UniProtKB/TrEMBL annotation:
It is found in: Nucleus, Nucleolus. Residues 9-91 form the U3 small nucleolar RNA-associated protein 6 N-terminal domain. One of its GO terms (molecular function) is snoRNA binding. The lineage of its organism: Eukaryota, Metazoa, Chordata, Craniata, Vertebrata. This is UTP6 protein. InterPro entries: HAT (IPR003107), TPR-like_helical_dom_sf (IPR011990), Utp6 (IPR013949), UTP6_C (IPR056907), UTP6_N (IPR055347). The keyword Thylakoid does not apply. Belongs to the UTP6 family. Gene3D superfamilies: Tetratricopeptide repeat domain (1.25.40.10).
Length: 597
């Protein structure tokens, strides 16, 4: 092994001599490079190879390349690149090849090699990397797309890109993204040829030796890709994705027409189809030249376009009465309403239209649960309080088992300061199962703290502990403790803490809150702190190292503390802590003893 490393270091000598001779590095820096390279070489020649060692070596070489580049720029020297940089580049490629050969499944390693090749313009090497990577990771469409894009955009080889896409489709015959990118590539190829032909004609050159097929120029290859894809991939989403790509090219009108006809013929019942047709009215309107039209005329034109869109959406919800269809309609209305406009009349018209659509969807019993919240926000913003209360009540009737819907209704009632809040809370907890009701109880007690008497709030806290699941009651205990301290003081909270400790489960924060409350007292007693720490350690002593360390710190720093107890606390911690936590505790305890923690 030593002979091999020595040989590798000797191979570096010519480039290092050149670096010193041309003044890029000093002799001391050359020695430092050799020392570092020797240490890195020994690490990658061991029997038990580690990926991190290869990564560190590669990163060191890349940093060296960057440093050379900066120093060249500083002194204005641009010669001897073949003897210096090319030698280092060759070594980095060799390291990457060894690493990817050893850890073939690490895609990130392959991608790092690809990025390095792109950065240093190593086209020939990158072609080899892509070839090897795709042979191993042929199950990843994104890598095929990356390779094909590089062939098309960097090497300007449409033929190679097409070949890669065809190979990829043999492995992934039903991958929508592959077909979309293949379709885009064929259109880019057609556009490139159209531009070439135009330039030749402009220069009045003879096109005899160049064969520009009219079919390719008009995007026939892309049409073939599209037709093949539609036989294997179903759904309006794919059709719309392909259509959006076709719209990027100005010579695809016929192709766009064919895609649109297929979309309407095959997916007439799909909400996405109707949504596209409706939004298309907006785009078609925007194509009409407006020139320097007065402001009112522009506003009227926008209003007409939106009305045409809504007419299509009205037709859509009649033809396809589903929740998704209404969701598309409402989303469109909200988008238009949220657009900025200086016209108050247009803004009001958009608001009325949006509220009307919400109401129609609700009356049809097809308004999705998530959209009720947006409807209520809109009503409250528009100061339609009574309507908001009515809608919230209707939502809870329809989704009577949904915690989120009840929570939403209660927030509306609290915001409007209605008198029937308590009645609504009672109704909510009666309808909803105990599991998952934490949000309701949290809202109820927070509202009660600011509205009801202390006695009523305390009774509500105690009721919430019985009504919630054990896991959810943990949060309620913490809130109960906080509220009791704020409203009743230390003596009251100590009694509540003692009573709450009778029923598990607890959280670590529950005990830490009580410890903090004790510390805030003028006469903070170590006896009480020990009681709280001991209770906490009974629950979390096997999983929390910081709790043990805080206990030790308390004994050391408190006026009534007993430093001699630290030894027994340490011994108990070593016995109770599990697995790697013991080592973690020992290291932190050592730092504490030496004053570094």
């Amino acid at each position: 092994m030593a002979e091999r490393i020595e040989q590798r270091l000797e191979d570096r000598v010519p480039e290092l001599e050149q670096l010193e001779r041309v003044g890029l590095f000093s002799r001391a820096e050359i020695r430092a490079v050799l020392r570092k390279a020797s240490a890195l070489e020994y690490k990658i020649q061991r029997r038990a190879l580690r990926k991190e060692d290869f990564i560190n070596y590669i990163q060191y070489e890349i940093n060296l390349l960057e440093l050379i580049k900066k120093r060249r720029a500083r002194i204005g020297y641009s010669f001897k690149k073949e003897e210096i940089e090319y030698s280092i580049l060759h070594r980095v490629h060799s390291l990457f090849n060894r690493a990817t050969g050893k850890w073939k499944d690490d895609v990130q390693l392959w991608l790092s090699h690809v990025a390095f090749c792109k950065q240093w313009n190593a086209k020939h090497q990158l072609s080899k990397v892509f070839s090897t990577m795709l042979a191993i990771h042929s199950n990843k469409p994104a890598l095929w797309i990356m390779a094909a894009k590089w062939e098309m955009e960097t090497r300007l080889s449409s033929e190679s890109a097409r070949h890669l896409f065809l190979r990829a489709l043999r492995f992934h015959p039903e991958c929508p993204k592959l077909y979309q990118e293949y379709f885009r590539m064929e259109l880019m190829h057609a556009e490139k040829q159209r531009k070439e032909k135009k330039e030749f004609e402009k220069a009045k050159m003879d096109l005899g030796e160049f064969n520009y097929s009219e079919e390719i120029l008009n995007g026939e290859m892309a049409r073939i890709v599209y037709r093949d894809a539609t036989q294997k991939i179903k759904g309006a989403e794919f059709q719309l994705a392909v259509l959006s790509i076709a719209k990027l090219f100005d010579f695809t009108q016929d192709l766009q027409k064919e895609i649109l006809e297929n979309l309407q013929a095959s997916y007439a019942d799909d909400p996405l189809t109707w949504e596209h047709m409706a939004r298309r009215e907006l785009d078609l309107g925007s194509l009409q030249p407006t020139g320097r039209a007065p402001k009112q005329r522009k506003v009227a034109e926008i209003a007409r376009r939106e009305e045409r869109c809504c007419a299509v959406f009205d037709e859509a919800v009649a033809a396809v009465p589903t929740e998704n269809m209404w969701k598309c309609y409402i989303t469109f209305c909200l988008e238009r309403y949220n657009r900025k406009t200086n016209s108050g009349e247009l803004k009001q018209k958009r608001l009325e239209r949006t509220l009307s659509v919400f109401n129609k969807a609700h009356e049809s019993n097809l308004l999705p649960e998530a959209l009720y919240k947006q409807w209520l926000q809109l009503l409250l913003e528009s100061h339609l309080s009574e309507k908001a209360v009515e809608v919230a009540e209707a939502a809870t009737r329809r989704f009577s088992l949904s915690v989120d819907t009840w929570h939403m209704r209660l927030q509306v009632l609290i915001q409007l300061k209605r008198e029937d809040v308590t009645q609504c809370f009672e109704e909510a907890v009666k309808h909803v199962k105990s599991k998952g009701t934490l949000a309701l109880w949290t809202l109820w007690v927070e509202w009660s703290e600011g509205t009801n008497s202390k006695e009523d709030t305390e009774a509500l806290y105690q009721r919430s502990l019985r009504a919630t699941t054990p896991a959810e009651s943990v949060t309620m205990k913490e809130m109960y403790l906080d509220w009791t301290y704020r409203s009743g003081g230390y003596k009251k909270v100590k009694k509540v803490f003692t009573s709450l400790c009778e029923n598990r489960p607890f959280s670590i924060d529950f005990f830490r809150k009580m410890i903090q409350m004790e510390k805030e007292q003028e006469s903070c007693k170590m006896l009480h702190l020990r009681e709280y720490y001991e209770r906490a350690l009974r629950e979390f002593g096997s999983t929390d190292t910081d709790l043990w360390l805080d206990y030790v710190k308390e004994e050391l720093s408190h006026p009534q503390g007993k430093p001699e107890n630290c030894g027994s606390i340490h011994w108990r911690a070593m016995k109770m802590l599990q697995g790697d936590l013991v080592e973690d505790f020992v290291s932190k305890y050592t730092l504490l003893q030496t004053g570094h923690l």
